[in-house]
């Protein structure tokens, strides 16, 4: 078994350029502040003088005719699990036949991935996105001028997404918050237009931008709660954090449904293969009696997205579907099952096909792509690898942004059994190098983590030339973990040659 894990920051590993039809849109957006490239300013997501100005977003939407008021929205916030929960819920709604708009971020290969439309869940076409932008460009230019250039890339693209949803007669939109919740551009949606709110998890990511503590992060994310609208919480949360969320909901007269309710008996039963791709067999049994009377029993659900954390995201989405059902959105048990089983998201425990492995130059490998970039998500990935490939040896290819916890991330993945090697490399972050961590600094974090954990390691630099093989370096006979650095292509080549020896197998993350 070869498991290849090419880890990046979810939107950095791509050699594709946008469709030429989007040149005009991308030129416009690239002239705006892009905090995915630049990094998020301190206190950006808090109710402070340094926080994002939601007023400018309201003024922008006003100029566009407030399209966000022409459909109902499910608004999702959370540290981790937002995108997967959105994918699950959107898929459930589409399985019932609704015309669904889904807005998520960031993207992997094309910005079109952030907007899906209609009953099939395909990314918006380049032609439709370009046409829509051109017809609204004059208004957008006026808005940028009125705000003295302060409108950001994310704010403008969010406005375009909402405008598209309205134009396409979307019945319900599933919208992922970008940062926090209270000050996020997506929070321009008024309470009367929100069907339900969801908070998936609360963890220590973007600490500086969200107030510096786990509690301040919870407060920021609770900003998506709207008066009288049900709140679905994923979790599990530590008691103090759940108390903050429930207290905010109570102050807004919003009923709360917990995916971690003691009445829920969901479990991962094992794994199977469908068309050669691993799936996890799960039972989802919910019986919720507080605030709402909700129940469902789904046995033997085959999820494409792997890991216990993805089961939790599926349970959260199912709770949301049951809440929508109570509001009159007809969602049958069959549609819930079908939606969960067909849900898929790039870069989330994604196993590439053999054809895709061949294109990467690693034929015969099992290649797992995942966008984990916190210690919590690294722990979830480590658990997924151990459950899905318990006997596989692994090689990791890792690249990360410079504002992540590299040491904590490394500690979690070093706990995976039969880890052979870690290749650190570099990729652009959101198309730029300003947030990129150098391969050498990233390798240093792994070296420090391995020393803390008393692991034997070999420190090696991957050569870009063909004549320096791993075997020649004398490392193939060693039982130590290889820690190496180099360019992306050199690391892929080295990982591939590493696996060719009979005792080795690989995972590109």
From TrEMBL:
This protein's record includes keyword Phosphoprotein: no
Coiled-coil boundaries: none
UniProt entry keywords in alphabetical sequence: ATP-binding, Ligase, Magnesium, Metal-binding, Nucleotide-binding
Molecular-function annotations in GO: ATP binding; dihydrofolate synthase activity; metal ion binding; tetrahydrofolylpolyglutamate synthase activity
Cellular component aspect of the GO annotation: cytoplasm
Chain segments annotated as transmembrane: none
Boundaries of every Mur ligase central domain copy: 76-321
Family: Belongs to the folylpolyglutamate synthase family.
Protein name listed in UniProt: Mur ligase central domain-containing protein
Sequence ranges assigned to domain Mur ligase C-terminal in this UniProt record: 363-445
Listed InterPro entries: Folylpolyglutamate_synth, Folylpolyglutamate_synth_CS, Mur-like_cat_sf, Mur_ligase_C, Mur_ligase_C_dom_sf, Mur_ligase_cen
One matching Pfam family: Mur_ligase_M
Keyword Ligase annotated: yes
SUPFAM superfamilies for this protein: MurD-like peptide ligases, catalytic domain (SSF53623), MurD-like peptide ligases, peptide-binding domain (SSF53244)
Organism lineage: Eukaryota, Viridiplantae, Streptophyta, Embryophyta, Tracheophyta
Organism: Anisodus acutangulus
